[in-house]
Amino acid sequence: MKTILLTGGSAGIGLATAELLMNKGYRVYSGSRRGGGEVQKSASGGEIIPMILDVNDEESVKAAVEQIMGENDELYAVISNAGNGIAGAIEDTSSEEAKEQLETNFFGSVKVIQACLPVFRSQGHGKIIVTTSVAGVIPIPFQAFYSAGKAALQIFVEALAMEVKPYGIQCCTILPGDTKTEFTSARKYTAASENENSTYYRRMKTAVEKMEHDEQHGMKPEAIAKAIVSQVERRKMKSRVIPGLMYKAICAVSDLLPNSLRLKMIDMVYS
Questions:
Q1: Is 102 left (phi over 0), alpha (psi -120 to 50) or beta?
Q2: Which DSSP state fits 105?
Q3: Nearest to 240, CA basis, from 250, 253, 229, 231
Q4: pTM recorded for the entire structure
Q5: Which residue range forms the structural domain that includes residue 151?
Q6: Backbone angles phi, psi at 180, to 5 degrees
Q7: DSSP states of 247-264 as a string?
Q8: Any idea what DSSP says for residue 38?
Q9: pLDDT tens digits for 132-149?
């Protein structure tokens, strides 16, 4: 049975991915801060094994990988999916709040990948799949640090792919667009951005409300899970996958437009 480590597996895209993998016969170690819960098994012989894994804690990440390798001969793939969202104007975001966003959305994935790389190199193969976002390609106003973290993660994985290719390790990024999950209700706001006297308050609220409306009418997490699992099952993974024709088109058009026009159109969407 092939073994996979999945972070952010307690809800949304992560949970849908874990369940689909289990139903296809994989053993999935589903890491989250809460951890715990019963092992789930499917008729196909697959299973989901919940485990405590805090991507912001290097020791927690290392302990999770050590546990997996103590219980299995190989690690087939890692799917880095943990993330969060903090909304607010750049001026209304403290350095601590910005660091909190980047710590989870960028450095969390870095820690998980770094912990898995020695295992993959030793066994001569491995798959690294990272959930980034269309927001890493399309800058979202009042979500600047979220967009920045996802853009950094995209470039990081692409650079990583070149470094580890000689060791039989493949890398792939998944770029979801608006997706209907608990992510919307879990979104936080920076402390200063919730002050109605902030210069940015009304524009920030309008932008976030439009974004959250799109999220709640967006793709189902199961559709993103299918895109992830399809890469797990490919002999040779694609380097980048954008689920959904609309989001493929948005990213393609964004690449072709003059930057000034591109930014003007994005601004109009969220105004």
A1: alpha
A2: I
A3: 231
A4: 0.95
A5: 3-269
A6: -85, 100
A7: HHHHHHHHHHS-HHHHHH
A8: P
A9: 999 999 999 999 999 999
Q: What is d(CA 166, CA 126) in angstroms, rounded to the nearest whole number?
A: 12
Of residues 154, 136, 131, 159, the one with CA closest to residue 146: 136
Q: Let me know: does 102 contact 148? Beta carbons within 8 Å.
A: yes
Which tokens hold the place of 90?
Answer: 């750049």
Place of tokens 């009304």: 202
Helix and strand counts by DSSP (H, E) for the chain: 10, 10
Q: Are 110 and 158 in contact (CB under 8 A)?
A: no
- Rg for the chain, CA atoms, rounded: 19
- pLDDT over 90 at 250, yes or no: yes
**CATH number of the domain within which 57 lies:** 3.40.50.720
- Under the banding of pLDDT at 50, 70 and 90, the label for residue 185 is confident
What's the CA gap between 18 and 21, in Å, rounded?
A: 5
